Amino acid sequence: MAAKEVGDIVSLLSTDERDFLVDSNGEKVPISDLQGKTVALYFSYPYFRTCAEFTPVLAQIDRKLKEVGQSFEVVQVLPVDEKVSYNEAIESTSWLAVPFNDQSVTGLLKHFGVNSFPTLVLIGSDGKTVDVNFTELIEELSGEAWEAFLFSQEKLDKLLEKAKAKREAQTLESLFVSGDLDYVIGAQGSKVPVRELVGKTILVYFSSLQCPPCRAFLPKLVEHYHQIRNVDNAFEIIFVSSDPDRASFEEFFSSMPWLALPFGDERKKSLARTFRICMLPSLVALHPSGRTLARDAKQLLTILGTDAYPFTEEKITEAERRTEEMAKGWPEKIKPDLHEHELTLARCSSVDYCHACEQMGIAWLYYCTKCVYSLHPQCALKEAEMDKEGCVCDGDVCRKI
Ligand SMILES: [Zn+2]
Ligand SMILES: [Zn+2]
C-alpha cells in the first residue's frame, strides 16, 4: 500500500451520529483522544486462525510501546454482525474498537482496500499512513517488531535489514542440532545425522495424528514427496510430531516415507518457536542453506502442486499471481443457497475452513459476517455456475464429471 494522506483521524473514524469508539468493556472513548497519537487500525476477522495467531503478538507490541511511553493506540475494525462474536473479539484486548455493527466499517475496508485479514494500517500523528506492510513486518520480527512502531523510515529499514540478516544466518544445523541431539530418525528409528541433510531442500512438517486436517493432508503430501523425489533426490521432509503419546506418533510416522524428530524430542519446542507454529498441519520450506524459504509451503503446494518445488521466491510470486487470477470474475459478495446470509470474499490461509466440503481453504474464502461460516469459492459458486455442467468440488479443485 502506498502512503496515504488520511488527514484528520477524527473525521476518518467518526460518523454523523458518532464521535466515539469503544474500549474492551464497551465504554465510550472520544475519538478526539486519538489526536496526536500513532494509530494502528487493526482489521481482523476473528474466525480466521491467522487473526487468532496475530492478535496476541499485536497485544504484546501494544504493551511494550505503552511501557516505553509511546502515544500509540490500536483501533480494532471488525466486520462481524453478530454481537457475541464481536464481544468475544474485543473483550480479550486492551485496545479500542469501532462499535458493533457500525456503518463506517464497510467504508473503512474500502478506503484502505482491505481484502485480507489480518491487515494493519498504521497512521502517524501527522495523519499519513506509513508505507510498510506491518503484518509482514511482525511476521518477520515477531516480539522485536515493537521497535518499528517508534518509526522513522530509517529505523524501519534497519529493522528489516536485521530481520534479513537473521534469516540469512539460519542453517539446518542451527535449527536441528542441540548438544548431543544432532540426528533425526528414519523408518524403524534408524539415526540420520543432521549433517547428512545439509544441502537439501527440506520441508519441516508439523503435524499430529489427533488432528483431522493433518490426516486429510498426509496422503497428498506423500504423493508430492514421491513426485518431487523422482526428479530431485536433494529433497527431504522432517516430521515434527505434536502427538501426545508414543503409540500415536509411531502409528502416524509409520505411514510417512520420510524422516522425523524422535518422539518427545526437546528440539520440537525451539523449532515451533522459531517458525511460530500455532496451527496444524504446518509445512515450512527450508533452502539448501537452511534459511527459511516459505512458512506456508502447504499453501504453495495446494496452489501449484508439485510445481511449487523448490519453494523459491519465484514460485511464491507465481502462486501469488495465480491466487489473484483465481478470484477474477468472482463476485465480491454472494448469497449462496447453502447459507442463509450474504457472504463476502476474502483472502485466507491454508488452514481456514470450508463448512460445505469440510476441507481447508485455498487462498480465498467467502465468509459470513453474521456467524461462524465460510465457504470455498468453488463450493459457494458451484451451485450457481457449475452444477448445471456437472462439477464436483473435492475441496482443492472443482472439476467436471
Ligand atoms: Zn469447500
Ligand atoms: Zn451466516
From TrEMBL:
Enzyme class of the recorded protein, top EC level: oxidoreductase
Q: Which reaction does it catalyse?
A: [protein]-dithiol + NADP(+) = [protein]-disulfide + NADPH + H(+); [protein]-dithiol + NAD(+) = [protein]-disulfide + NADH + H(+)
In short, the EC number is 1.8.1.8
Q: Reply yes or no: does the keyword NADP apply.
A: no
Q: What InterPro entries does the entry give?
A: DC1 (IPR004146), Nucleoredoxin-like (IPR052259), Thioredoxin-like_fold (IPR012336), Thioredoxin_domain (IPR013766)
Keyword annotations for this protein, in alphabetical order, are: NAD, Oxidoreductase, Repeat
Domain of life (superkingdom): Eukaryota
Q: Which GO terms describe its molecular function?
A: protein-disulfide reductase [NAD(P)H] activity
Thioredoxin domain: from which residue to which, for each copy?
A: 10-155, 161-328
* Pfam families linked to this entry: C1_2 (PF03107), Thioredoxin_8 (PF13905)
Q: Which family does it belong to?
A: Belongs to the nucleoredoxin family.
Q: Which PANTHER family did the record assign?
A: THIOREDOXIN, THIOREDOXIN DOMAIN-CONTAINING PROTEIN
Q: What is this protein called?
A: protein-disulfide reductase
- State the organism of origin: Zingiber officinale (Ginger)
**What is the organism lineage in this UniProt record?**
Eukaryota, Viridiplantae, Streptophyta, Embryophyta, Tracheophyta
